[in-house]
């Protein structure tokens, strides 16, 4: 006695693969979309208003207190558990 499911024919496997692919395409089609012009203007607006500390030529130098990438002001601040 074998508890294995019966073998599927090649056409059944092909149909199943096509059905799965069709389902993925339907999910992609249902995904919300925006125009490229809207996305690019949103990205430009974000880049102009968000300060990037790694580009000092654009935003100027950053004080050590504001710099999130700088070393901590007072010691290591490590916690040993």
Structure summarized in a few sentences:
Keywords: Lipoprotein, Membrane, Methylation, Palmitate, Prenylation, Transducer. Helix content is 48%, strand content 0%.
Essential attributes:
membrane, transducer, mainly alpha, palmitate, GGL_sf, G-protein_gamma-like_dom, 81 residues, 3 helices
How many structural domains does the protein architecture include?
1
Please give the share of residues in helix.
40-55%
Low-pLDDT regions: none
Helix/strand/pairing class, anyone? mainly alpha
Q: How many DSSP E strands?
A: 0
Return the string of H and E elements: HHH
Distance between the termini: 57 Å
GO biological process, one term: pheromone-dependent signal transduction involved in conjugation with cellular fusion
GO molecular function, one term: G-protein beta-subunit binding
Pfam family, one: G-gamma
Keywords: Lipoprotein, Membrane, Methylation, Palmitate, Prenylation, Transducer
Helices and strands, with pairings:
Elements lengths: L9 H21 L5 H14 L6 H4 L22
Q: Overview of this structure, please?
A:
The protein is mostly helical. It has one domain. It is built from three helices and no strands. It has helices at residues 10-30, 36-49, 56-59. It starts with 9 loop residues before the first helix and ends in a 22-residue tail after the last helix. The relative contact order is 0.06. The model has no long low-confidence stretch (mean pLDDT 82).
């Amino acid at each position: 006695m074998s508890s294995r499911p019966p073998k599927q024919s090649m056409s059944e496997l092909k149909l199943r693969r096509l059905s799965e692919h069709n389902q993925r395409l339907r999910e992609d089609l249902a995904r919300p979309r925006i125009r490229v012009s809207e996305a690019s203007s949103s990205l430009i607006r974000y880049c102009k208003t968000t300060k990037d500390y790694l580009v000092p030529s654009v935003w100027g130098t950053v004080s050590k207190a504001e710099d999130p990438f700088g070393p901590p002001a007072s010691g290591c601040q490590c916690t040993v558990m």
